[in-house]
Amino acid sequence: MTCVPSAGDTTQLDQFRVRQKLMEPRCEMEPVLCRAEQDACATITMQVALNRFWVGAGCDQRVNYDIPADRHGCAEMATLTRNWLPGYIEERRAIQKICICTGDLCNTASTKLAFLNLSNFLILIFAQKIIQQVFVR
């Protein structure tokens, strides 16, 4: 699952999207097809200011995270960001909540939502296979 994009506040890298300027530490999610080398789903949340959150979600590789390989779940990690600007350096410290899992649609927010998104995802895959069969012939 990945965040649904919104104009002006979404950045996408491969099958991982980041939403900024959110009022809550969550985003509306939609299914995403991961590439073969992407073996994990990740959701990362971070409070960047009062009532302002950053949420990233989507496909990634398990080796990119410092959570034990035999464990699924969430961990809180301290981060430090530095921006070098003319005349001074800006530092920002924040806690990121990182959740990792390895099943299909495993990073969805709720069971009910997971069922609805799974249905939509299966319809999308079925439609994609039909389109491929029509255009291949």
From TrEMBL:
Name of the protein in its database record: Protein quiver
Superkingdom, natural source: Eukaryota
